[in-house]
Amino acid sequence: MPPLPSSVASAARKQLVRGEHIVASDTRRDLRNLRESLRLLVLVVVVAAAMGVAAWAFLASLDAVGAFRDANRIIFLGLPVVGVATAWLYRTYGKGAARGNNLVIDSTLANATVPLRMAPFTFVCSVATHLVGGSAGREGTAVQIGGTIASTVSRLLHLTGRDHQDLMLSGISAAFGAVFGTPLAGTFFGMEMCFVGKLHYNAGIYCLVASFVGDMVSRALGTTHAAYAIAEVPALEPATVLMVVGAAVIFGLMARLFSFAIRTVKRFWASRITNYLTAALLGSLLVLGAYVVLNAYSYAGLSTWLVTSGLEGSTSLIDPFMKLLMTALTLGAGFQGGEVTPLFGIGASLGGWLGTVLSTEPSFMAALGLLGVFGAALNVPITTIMLGIDLFGGNAVAYFVIVSFVSYLVAGHRGVYPAQRIIMPKRRSLDADENLTVDEAIERHRNETEAS
Fold first, then answer.
1. Which run of H or E residues covers position 422?
2. Residue 130: band (very low, low, confident or very high) from pLDDT cuts 50, 70, 90
3. What secondary structure letter does DSSP report for 437?
4. End-to-end CA distance of the chain
């Protein structure tokens, strides 16, 4: 075989050298990315483990004060004291911590400062809220604690850009996974909570690790979670699908009503009473009065019995509306706590009632109601599907998907997190809301309505 011409051989050598340089450059870049990713992953594990410990302590505290409250109804008289003390504490020493989950969202997306005091403030005040009978949940407190831990670590290590954002989203995932014992849902909640119409895939592996680590640590310390099951999943037939779509519309409307009620109560006290302590006192007295007049004591605290009763088909139409009323009055008055557990109870009790009315398996409709109201109120459709798998297994996953997306669309650009950024509007008619926050979108719609 004749030798290659010198020009061809020279070109081949240059190409080989160039290829070696490319491979070497890619290898260095990959190793650098791996080193940085492993460094962040270590921080994620630290944050998630700390959140797991905090979740265990928080849930144990809620169990203790809930049992004491149920055995000593007179403790409800402490509602005004806790309401006023909470308002004074946050106004005097809060440094913006009163914005709660919305501050966590802003810190994630705009690097706003989350004060370290947010975690102990929300822990103590949420436990106090449940002690005296406030109708609230636990997710808000958990997310604020997880956000505070992540923000503090980020600030100490001077993280910026994507590293800061990914760590914050991981803290959110760890909080949700640990406090509800739902690691799949927790994974996607961190990726989805800050946005409407977007999943933050870049943080996926970190959120996955954080949610599972947080849940495992919390369980290892003794946390237990209720087990739920759907007694019978109907076949995927046109009539059943049509029934589920109709129910999902109702669940989406209920979620919209929930968000509207809390927002309305907050606006009422802020616009009518100039002195914040007076507003807190009157709001607390209204909550107490509602308990007494309506004999609504069973709707205090987490009211997890609503989920169990809904699955059994033993709830009435009064139950979801009573829980909605007491939660709106509680959170609207400024008490600390979350929205998710009340949403579970509202959705499950409404779904269970629908199941009995429609002569279908109540546990099936209660499960769909729990998921639909939750997902529509928080604008997290993918998290909703994963939550269904975490809580009820995968046999009804087709129905979880239907309910998740239908209720999400019906709820529109509303939600319990005003700071959520609308990345992809839900419908073409809402395109003008793109890049607004949920709060800004609501105000835009209100101004348009008043102008017309």
1. strand 421-422
2. very high
3. B
4. 87
Helix (H) / strand (E) element for 421: namely strand 421-422
Name the nearest CA neighbour of 159 among 40, 305, 63, 254.
40
Dig out the tokens for 389 from the structure.
């798998």
Give ∠ CA 440-117-132 in degrees, rounded to 5: 85
Which two structure tokens, joined as six digits, stand for 81?
A: 């004291």
CB-based contacts of 282, cutoff 8 Å, min separation 6: 269, 273
DSSP string, 184-201: HHHHHHHHHTTEES---G
Average pLDDT, the chain: 93
* Inter-residue contact 286 to 273 (CB < 8 Å): no
Calculate the alpha carbon distances from 431 to 405, 413, 422, 423, 426 in Å.
18, 11, 10, 10, 8
pLDDT in tens, 409-436: 999 999 999 999 999 999 888 889 999 9
Fill in the amino acid letter for 139. E
Among 57, 36, 66, CA closest to 149: 57
Chain Cα centroid distance, residue 118 = 17
